[in-house]
Structures are given as structure tokens and as C-alpha cells.
Amino acid sequence: MLDAKIPAGALDDKWTDYKGHCKLVNPANKRKLEVIVIGTGLAGASAAASLGEMGYKVKAFCFQDSPRRAHSIAAQGGINAAKNYQNDGDSVFRLFYDTIKGGDYRSRESNVHRLAEVSANIIDQCVAQGVPFAREYGGLLSNRSFGGTQVQRTFYAAGQTGQQLLIGAYQALERQVALGNVKMYSRHEMLEIVKIDGKAVGIIARDLITGKLERHFGHATLLCSGGYGNVFYLSTNAMGSNVTAAWKAHKKGAAFANPCYTQIHPTCIPVSGDHQSKLTLMSESLRNDGRIWVPKQKGDSRKPNEIPEEERDYYLERRYPAFGNLVPRDVASRAAKERCDEGYGVGSSKQAVYLDFSEAIIRYGKIEAGKEGNDHASQEDLIKLGKDVVKEKYGNLFDMYAKITGEDPYEVPMRIYPAVHYTMGGLWVDYELQTNVPGLYALGEANFSDHGANRLGASALMQGLADGYFVLPYTVGNYLADEIYNKAVATSHAAFEEAEKEVSDRINRLMNIKGKQTVESFHKRLGKIMWNKCGMARNAQGLQEAITEIQALKKEFWSDVKIPGSIDEMNPELDKANRVADFIELGELMCKDALNRNESCGGHFREEYQTPDGEALRDDANYMYVAAWEYAGESNWNLIKEPLVYDVIKPTQRNYK
Amino acid sequence: MNLNLKVWRQKNTATKGGFKLYRVENISSEMSFLEMFDVLNEQLIHEGEDPITFDHDCREGICGACSMYIDGKPHGPWQANTTCQLHMRAFKDGDTIVVEPWRANAFPVIKDLMVDRTAFDRIIQAGGYISVNTGNAVDGNALPIPKDDADASFAAAMCIGCGACVAACKNSSAMLFLSAKVSHLALLPQGNPERKSRVVNMLAQMDKEGFGACTNTGACEATCPKEISLTNIARLNQEYLVASLTDNK
């Protein structure tokens, strides 16, 4: 049994009551307590900085050369907060409701409500740190719309919101490093959790430059290591993003929840060839102004600008008039796949749809011309004026598109296709963000808790910072208050020795395979299996096949992988081999989870379970639970169900029509 | 297309490095520069040679990890671009491309094309922040900031910390990097209380790290992938002058 430790009382009061009653640690004791933070993205950097400010002794680890490069930096569109600055009826309840509904009623009410409650504090904190959010001429903060909502609650900094928020958290972290409260370990990778009497007491990390293994003690360990989208090989994740830290925790007892919930983002630059190493996202914010369409005629090979208006099918506007181009990501992705599968796709691969800005350019052009009192501007002038507005809003995204594709999106519509972007599943955590291993916490994308089966746009940044700045600093105290009686365990303890031996044995085993196939080739093959059989649409037969194929791939990997170089040096191939080995195991669990969930919900679409018009068909009677998997040996897991109880919201079929 | 590559190989910081010649074939113009390196590395692994180590992560031009000095230019021939976003359309069949790591005393080579840029983190530690603990903030709209100031601050804050400015500078100066941070924070009212100590301490740290002085050549601005403007250096100088003339310490 897993106890989510949801506080009693009314939903609105739970968090306030919790904060009023949780245990505290006095300042003198904080200095004696050590906390390990793995990962320095939004969740990790904000947690490490906040804990440092509070007086804890913090050690932070990242595999990049600097904490500033964590993949949160690549988030483009924005961050949600229930500020209601636009006076359009937003509130904590609406943000809570939209998030639960967007997640297709598969997330925990209490956690999501807390997220909505602290969302406003995040914006305040970031502004105080000097995050240069977009502003209106009056000097006040600007907002825009995102998918799955009907209010404007998204704060942004052009198309670089993640970068600006991460730099804010990074600077707060570096300030704590300078003050001596945080010790930073960059180019380090966590490779094992150390446990004594069931509690997490530290980690084994590898210095990626020297290859040396290190032992680190912590009264508590926070995993802020991000998502596992790279299990698909091609995704919008950074090349280094990996599941290793979370997977090690899982194999040491932490349950892994809802692994099959993957978010496929609708607007990415399509795959161009076999050489492709990653996919690039075009922010959801583009759907504020871009219209998505395909030709009405199958296999139409005319250039987009030659296809007249009446021969274009704006299929999202047609199918979902209420939300139009701003339906949630899972809905938009499936709709694109449906059109392409039916033969309406565009571009040379026919696996793409158009995202068209021509109408927005004219619309903005008219507004600008109107400001100048010019009611008779020529089409050319309108286009010129409109382009300037579009450039200010989305310039960096348009530039990125042009560099990658060699086409000018101001002149021809973008070609886009869905790609793996985010993983809603992750380590199971309770209300306090603690896994079922005492002393081990998971924050941000690494946990499963807030987004259900589908995350709304601009909510990942919100969750990462909520967990790190405003939730964990309270909840970890509730655990550490009892740890003041426990002295730091010496890293010469047998538990550390054993854990280090496990890690070094595995590394030696990998290096000694000396096979013929490269790590990269295995990763690519795993990705293909996952994308074809556990991707945007899944079915029981495909998933069963995938499990068999992955098991065979695992065997092949452990007998034929080729890793050059040696252990005691900078060896990126070895680092990658460690990660791919874990991805292979995770892939199997994802398929198992998808196979178990005989329903469609959010990003998990089982072809057998759909409505007559192709929408996801949930089965609340049988699957309204969190599927938490407990590791029970090779290719073997026990399913623990955490029932989801909805006290406030009444689940219905999601309707965006 | 088929290409010849002249790549800097160096086993570690202590060992002397040198160029080595490689040939890659059937490279598509759609590939990114790093994908071309992926092809080369796969080839090297199959041939039993050590693959080339280089920094890279997001591959969408924002994390600032990638750092190759290509044909005498940081990040290669395209304007306002990072190595990962450079595509092979920029080259033609038969070209010989020379690839080196960033060259600066303050950025020692770790291996091959990978350098140690932690000096940048230490410069930020010296004052590149606003001292506000979590929970201290007032409402985000309590203090209006003129849009032009916010925009100028954002333009400076776009710096990705890649170090191309240092690699491009004949003096290996970090002034563009430093000035971007000083400008980002000095242009905002929230940055005001610490603006004097910030600029003084960050400059001192820059000198301590072994970066050179600025002679206003502008190579940094010309090569910056995020087009950070040289006017930030002017602002930095102004901030420094005011701080040194009026600081009471």
C-alpha cells in the first residue's frame, strides 16, 4: 500500500493547514543537516537555492558543465499563474480545474490545488530576482493564452521563458554557492542511491572528468533529474536528458508511477532523415496566432501558397470550434496524426501539417496601420507592418525554424508534426513529494504528481518552481525534524561500500563486453520500437510485441555493445551506455503500464478505446487510479494502485468542442 | 557531400594536443554540424579509434554547451548562431573544415574540443544575482518597469554563457559576458541596491580568472550567437566608473 498522506480538511485549506502544523527545524539544527540535490533545472536549482537560504548544508549535482545548462532552459512559451491580471475571470480554482481537466482526470486533486495556490508566488519571486518578463507599455506584466484554457494567464519572456526562469534560479543558486551554503558538483552523474535500514542516506556519484566514483552522505536526497522522453531516442529533450537517477531510485525501492503517460507535442519541426539526433519544438504559443491546416484534397502536391483558401481544411477549428487551434496538446497531436494517416499530410515525407501565420500578419498589419491613422494601407504595407509585430512576438522561433529547415516562415507556412516532449509519469510521491523510500524526494518532471495523463502548456515551469521554491522547503523539514537526532553516516559505512561496488561492477561489465555495435545504434533501435508501438497510438498487440522486442534488445545490448576508451577518463560513450541501459529497462515498464491501462486518457491513447469520433475514451470505473510499479527483479514489477478520489471536481468526458 | 576535417585532439588538460585529419562521406546538407560529428564518431568507434569529445546538450541553440571554433570563427560561419544550429548547407562538397576548442587561458581544455568554463560560474558567484531569498517578494506588478527598460534588460539577459565572446577576442576578455549580466540587472529597479558592489566584484573576479582586458575591437559582438550588443560594455564601464567614484567602502 502506498499512503499519499493527503491532509484532511477542505481542499482549499489543506496546504495552509499543513504548513501550520508541519514540524520545523531550528536554525542551529539546519546547519547540521545535509541535503543532496540531483539535477539543477528549475526544480533542482530552486530547491537547492531555497534550502541553502534556509541554512541547510546542500550539495547539488548536475551532469552538465554548469548548472545553468539544465534542460529547463529550452522551455519556450511561458509559465502559468493564477494572477488574474487580465481581469478575465481567472482564479486559483480555475487554474486547478483546467489542470485537472487537461490531465484527463488522472491527477491528485490535493497536489494540483496546492500547485495553483502557489503559482502566483512564483511570478512574484521571479520578478524580484530580476527575471525580465514581457511587459506592456504601462510597465505591467504581459500575458498570453496557452492551450486548454480560456483565460490569459501565461507569463513569458519572448520565446525564452525557460531560459530566463532558469537563469533566475541559477543566480540564486550561485549566490548560495558563494555564501558557502551550497557545494556545487558539475559534470557529475548520480549512479546509485545508498540506503540504510530502508532510509535513503546518500548517493554514489561519478566524476565524469576523471571517472572516479564518489560517496556522498545526505540526511535527505532530492531527485530533480527531469523526464525520460529520450527513451524514444528522438524527442525535444536535450541529448543528455536521462532517466538514470530516477531509475536507480526505482530499483532501490521507489515506485514508478504512470510510466506510459507521455506527452507528444503537436508543433515540432518534422523529421528530415535518418541522421537526425533530436527534434526541435516550435512553442505552443505559436498557436495563439498560427492556424493549422492541411489541403482538403488528398495528396495535394501544390505549394502551400498556391492552395486557395476554400481548399484548405483548418481541421482543429472545424472539429473544436470552442478552443480551435488552442486545444490541449494531446488532442492537437492526435488530430494531426489522423489527417496524415488519412493521406492529407504535406511536405516531402507527407508526415507534416501547416502552421500558417499569413492571416495573423495581415491582422496585426491592420492594427498597426490603424494606429498610424492609415485606413487605406496597401497589402504590401500591411504585410510589412504585420511581419514586424510577428517578429517581435516570435522572432527567435522563426529564426530557429529558418536555420533548421532552410525555409522562411514569414513567407511560407511552417511544416510541423508531433514529437515526444514531456513525460507526465515519474517517481511516485506523496503529498510531501517524498517517494515511498523515506528520505528520498522527487521534484519537477521527475515525479508524477500534478499533470495526470496530459500536461497543459506553460505548466511544467510552474510545477518545477512550485516544487522547488514553495513546496519542498516546507515538506522536507517535516522529515528532517526527526533527523536531528541522527549524525551524518560516515561514507566508509558498509552500505556505501556495497553501493559503490555495485556501480563499479556494472561499469566494468559494460566496458568488458567489447562487442560490435555502438551505444547510439542501440538507442536508435529502442526509440523506433517505442515510437512505433508505445507512441501516439498504442494497442495491446503492438505493446506485447514491443515488450518481447525490448527484452531481446536488452540481451543483445549486454552482449554486443561496444564502448571505446577507458573508465578513468572523460568518456561520453560510457556515460551514454549507462543511460541507454536504463532506458531499455524503462521502455519495457512503459509498455507494460500501457498494456495494463485498458482505456484511453490524455497522452495515453489505446486504439481499442475511443469514441465514434475518435476521442479518448476513459474507463473511470476501472482505471481511476495511479499505477505505481514496484521493482521486483529483472523484467518483473508489482502493480500498486493508488485510487484517485475526486471530492471537488466531477470527472466528465473532456469537451473542447 | 564528402568533407575533410582537421580536428584538434587532446587527451586531457595535462597532455599536449594536435590536429588530426579525418574524412566523412555522404553528408546530407540537412544535417546539423553536430550530427555530422555524430557520423564521424560512429565511424571512429567502428574503426577502434577514440571518438571526439565535445560539449553539447540541447541542440537547439539555447543551453550554451556547444563550443566549437570552426574555420577560425567561434560557432562557425553563420551570423548569430550556435554550433548546434549550424547546418551543413553552409559547406560544399570537398571542403576542408578546421575545428578547434575555445582557446583561452581561463578555459583550459578538458579533452579534445571540450573546455572548462567554470570561470563563468565563479564570475556570477561574485555578484551576478539579486539577493532575494525565497518568500521575500512583493506582488509582481507592485513595481512597474518601463517596457523599454524591461526589453533592454531582456536583450542582455539572453546571453547563453557559451564563451564564444572570449574565444573570439584576441585578448580572451570576458567583458561581453560580464557586461550582459551587469546590464541585465542594472537596468531593472530590483537590481539597484547592489549595482555598485556587483560591478566591482564581478570585474575583480574576471581579472582573477585570467581573462584579458577589453580593447573595444568588437569581435565578441560580431560572433555572439545571441547578438549581445557592445553597448553593454559601454554600460559596464559607466557602471564601474560611477561605482568606483562613489562607493563609500
Q: Which secondary structure elements does this structure contain, and how are they paired or packed?
A:
The complex is a heterodimer of chains A (657) and B (249).
Chain A lengths: L13 H8 L5 H4 L3 E5 L3 H13 L2 E5 L17 E2 L11 H11 L6 H21 L24 E2 L5 H18 L3 E4 L2 E9 L2 E9 L5 E5 L2 E4 L20 H8 L4 E2 L4 E7 L22 E5 L16 E2 L1 H5 L9 H13 L11 E4 L1 H14 L7 H27 L8 E10 L2 E2 L12 E3 L17 H24 L10 H20 L3 E2 H15 L6 H21 E2 L9 H25 L23 H4 L1 E7 L5 E7 L14
Parallel strand pairs in A: 1-2, 1-9, 2-5, 9-17, 18-19
Antiparallel strand pairs in A: 3-4, 6-7, 7-8, 10-16, 10-20, 11-15, 12-13, 12-14, 14-15, 20-21
Chain B lengths: L2 E7 L8 E7 L8 H14 L22 E2 L2 E2 L21 E5 L8 E3 L2 E2 L2 H8 L21 H11 L6 H5 L6 H12 L8 H15 L9 H5 L7 H16 L3
Parallel strand pairs in B: 1-5
Antiparallel strand pairs in B: 1-2, 3-4, 3-5, 6-7
Helix pairs in contact in B: 2-6, 3-5, 5-6, 5-8, 6-8
Write a compact overview of the structure shown:
The complex is a heterodimer of chains A (657) and B (249). With 657 residues, chain A is α/β, with parallel strands linked by helices.
Largest sheet of chain B: 5 strands, mixed
What multimeric state do the chains show? Answer: heterodimer
Name of the CATH architecture of the largest domain in chain A: 3-Layer(bba) Sandwich
Overall spatial form of chain A: globular
Helix/strand-derived category of chain A reads alpha/beta
Radius of gyration of chain B: 20 Å
CATH class category label of the largest domain in chain B: Mainly Alpha
SSE pattern of chain B, N- to C-terminal: EEHEEEEEHHHHHHH
Q: Kindly give the count of domains of chain B.
A: 2
Uncertain regions spanning at least 5 consecutive residues of chain B: none
CATH class of the largest domain in chain A: Alpha Beta
Q: What is the approximate shape of chain B? A: elongated
Would you give the CATH topology of the largest domain in chain B? Fumarate Reductase Iron-sulfur Protein, Chain B, domain 2
